[in-house]
């Protein structure tokens, strides 16, 4: 660590808009007590001889955290100008948010400094959950139960007045609908389809949503206006859909109940390949974070799961076998990919005698020759779940080393080597779904609440902190939350009603800073 540099995160935690300087009390950090800062005028006492040039000053400033830069800006005009340098604040953004790549961001008219302060302010509001920090709305329209939902708006952080949170939903009433969570209104609804819609996936970059009904009819819809673009009929109902946007072009992977995997183009749903994976068995699918791998399994079966190399599913001839590998396990129940590793897969399964649950972690790779691709698999960790733990029904990954499991109403975190990090039992009734991203975890429950947790990543392993509940409607009318999703500005849950319908309940967080 360079001399004089403070540890990463020392000044960035829960940053709020201003600093406490010269006795002026205003919000700066997420700590319980405000830090008293020296008078900036004292920084320049006994002015340095010779004075630092701009290049040297920027070099020194590059070791400072955001709070220190804000203090330095109070010293004099030269320091103020230097502290506002674009590259300083861009590097602060990259250090604090690893996913904050310039190519993925839309700054608009704001500067990197404004982006840093506003995103920090938003994270503070989402961590505190104060009623004045968000707007709660109930959005009704479906005449049946909502079976699935997905955000169609991009997940980037925008503070230029153009931010939008838009979700699409499918329902047993046979419609797909789009909702603006910021405005609290329905944007459009499709015509009623001939069968109940049961699943959907979204392509935010293309502004498309794909649905499938209970008979296996797949349709593509334009997210802007709800116009239908294409359709494809599977021979049986679909057991899984996965959106797969790769450099060669966007794909849709559809698993049929007959055990076949269909690869289709998007948006026109042209068939590229069909692979028999588990004949006669419904198949589950999971794409890796980089979309180069597809995990296929059939639950609690003696058939071992398979991992396919995605590119080998494109334009395959009938007599050509796709590149894949079979994992040496059986009775698979759950699986997930680690978001920070391109090809690290965690699988929950039974051990050799079928008596205990095991979580095994694999890393995938490929070796290409002139005419074929060999799939390489390496086991890097494995551990037994405690006998006292009920079989988990939800499983997600975080970072590269952390596994989140939900068992009944309990949320438990393990490392991939089996070290239990923490356990929470904040819900009164079973947890129904779980959302995990870089900054938070959100669980929904039949107790009609959403629980919000925030990550603290200053230790060797990320620490999860339980923050607050978001409450739904009245138990007189509702039976609980069944789904939860989130983006950078909002949280949305599906609230099941006692009369066989569902509504959306959204919580929209607004940054109110200049």
UniProtKB/TrEMBL annotation:
Coiled coil: none
Keywords from the UniProt entry: Repeat, Ubl conjugation pathway, WD repeat
Gene3D superfamilies recorded: 1.20.1280.50, YVTN repeat-like/Quinoprotein amine dehydrogenase (2.130.10.10)
Keyword Repeat in annotation: yes
Pfam families: F-box-like (PF12937), WD40 (PF00400)
InterPro entries hit by this protein: F-box-like_dom_sf, F-box_dom, F-box_SCF_Substrate_Recog, WD40/YVTN_repeat-like_dom_sf, WD40_repeat_CS, WD40_repeat_dom_sf, WD40_rpt
Pathway involvement of the protein, from the record: Protein modification; protein ubiquitination
Residue stretches making up the F-box domain: 57-95
PROSITE patterns, per the entry: WD_REPEATS_1
Annotated protein name in UniProt: F-box/WD repeat-containing protein 12 isoform X2
Organism, scientific name: Bos indicus (Zebu)
